[in-house]
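Continued from yesterday's entry.
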Amino acid sequence: NFYLSKFNSISIREKEAFKYINKRNKKKTYHVADPVFLQDKKFWFNFIKNREPLKRKKFILVYSVARSKLIQEAVINLNTNLNFEVITIDPNLKANTKYDFKISDAGPEDFLHLYKNCSFVVTDSFHGVCFSLIFDKKFLCVVSDKIYSNRLTDLLSYIDCENNIYDNTSKIKEINSYKISTQSKGLTHQK
């Protein structure tokens, strides 16, 4: 509490951390959205405006940080219904999922370009979900015991997209049941 008292103001993204700090801190604490939501889709598109469109058929973009078996299962089950090409962003020597194309060295522009052009996203990454929302993409958020998932579940609950969560009890749903959240536009006003 001594160190917290030295700050003029405190803002926190995570709901649980916000509750924790708010109880222990005498100063006003603000619950805020992740900084990526401070800008709209046009801002992010501006980074890739000179890039050629990908000349690929429809594809699922897989972006995994936790590299759990659950994400492998989600991709296989989802693609059984879709039969799309699978592109994975994975810096490791061996990819965590079955794929048609693997990108090991995606920089920020590559990342944004893939998000802009994909048909569906499968991710266990908080920012993977954020950019799915910003780019209005249908997505599946894989939540496993391997990762700290409060940020993911809090965000999806806030925008009424819990249906997009895939965990060890989930079944793959009809593709049209996965939401593209129109409520994500209000994240810049979250407090």
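--- second protein ---
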Amino acid sequence: LSAYAILYNMIYLLEAPGFGLNGGAGAVVGNALGAGQPLAARRAAHCALAVALAAASATTLALYVAARHADLFGWYRADDASTALARSLLPELCACVFAANLSWPLLGIVAGAGRQRASWPAVTLGYFGVGIPTGAVLAFARPGYGFRGLFQGAVLGLSLSALLNLLLIVGHPLVPCAIDWAAAAAAAKSR
């Protein structure tokens, strides 16, 4: 459990840029749609995605470099075994920080477009359909995985949820419920 505390404390700290972009992206996209400007809303969504990608990349790179050159995990004063386990999960931690910094702005864009209902299948499938079952199988059916398997399943679920929400925003033939920006602007105007 100490390794869990170390990893999730770092995640909560390092996902702050994405969390901040959540509110900003949702507000800018929602304001543009409310003003009846679907192209501006789409452009704002794409701009928010670019900023989120840059923030996710910078945060993840900073974490990786800092963890390789300083004893970030040792700052938590956990026992040696927990610190070693957390340290060994640095690649998964980096993937989680990257996905979280993308996921928050994606959810903000979806909310700003008024399409939260279209997003719940992505979150449900990502976490409950894939992430949790995969983590459970890895943790309990694969010898030696334990906590590593649970954490890998959580990272997989978060990443899949982010990918599906990205497809919802940018559109894809496999995503029939993708955001129709003109229809979203018309719906916002009618409210």
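Residues 38-69 form the longest helix (32 residues). The CA atoms of residues 52 and 102 lie 6 Å apart. Will compare against the first tomorrow.
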